[in-house]
């Protein structure tokens, strides 16, 4: 009986450890490959720890002006899309939370229903519209496209935070002479910091990981973002420089890793907001 209890207590831990290993191993192998020479990648048995780590891939990468251009474009597009998403989602979510109007439920469902369509089904129509308005090969056009992709879920998420703020606080501020914008920016926003941070992280990750929009709407190499640049510049048709590709991938996950490291509690609270009432 004692052995069964020990086994029963250890089984969940073993399962969690196996699942963690399953998730972490690709990241470990990606990092390991970036420190290997291409000739050592296909050895049998494989090198689990490189005997002589190679740093030439990182030196070559940071000396490449094209890579820094891709990286800068991804940061500009990511921060631009995040800023616009935060502003638009905040006003839209506050309006849906505090005001009653006809077809409110239909409007909210219509906004959310845009998430049901796959990106591929929108690209042809979006490309035609962008071509007509001269938005192809522009960072602003890519920012607009990524903002429309992250905005529906962001509106619903921030609305949940606004719903949890008592209306009595706003009524008291209104009695004291505060305007609607003063109430929003001075009272409501400080109380919804977890929601704002979670929306910012979500929209930045969505824009940073984008591939289809940037590959379709950007054709100039100097305007490409990181993911599209990797697929075009570092992946060949017949052969692959796996060490360089893994080096680029390791470098590209640094901003996302830092976001999760410092703001993970806000992301968790944002995703679980409204799960329990009372």
Task: Show the helix and strand layout.
Layout: H1 2-34, H2 56-62, H3 65-98, H4 104-113, H5 119-133, H6 139-163, H7 167-175, H8 180-191, H9 193-208, H10 212-217, H11 226-234, H12 242-252, H13 254-271
Describe the protein in words.
Helix content is 74%, strand content 0%. The protein has 278 residues and is mainly α. The protein has one domain (63-271): MetI-like (MetI-like fold, Orthogonal Bundle), CATH 1.10.3720.10. Helix 1 (2-34) packs across helix 12 and helix 6 runs antiparallel to helix 9 (193-208). It is globular, with a radius of gyration of 24 Å. Residues 71-263 form the ABC transmembrane type-1 domain. Pfam families: BPD_transp_1 (PF00528). It is found in: Cell membrane.
CATH architecture: Orthogonal Bundle
What letter string, H or E per element, gives the SSE order?
A: HHHHHHHHHHHHH
Tell me the fraction of residues in β-strands, as a range: under 5%
CATH superfamily: MetI-like
Strand segment count: 0
Average per-residue pLDDT, rounded, comes to 84
Q: Measured on Cα atoms, how large is the radius of gyration?
A: 24 Å
Do you know the CATH topology? MetI-like fold
Largest sheet descriptor: none
Which outline best applies?
globular
Helix content: over 70%
Low-confidence stretches: 274-278
How many domains comprise the coordinates? 1
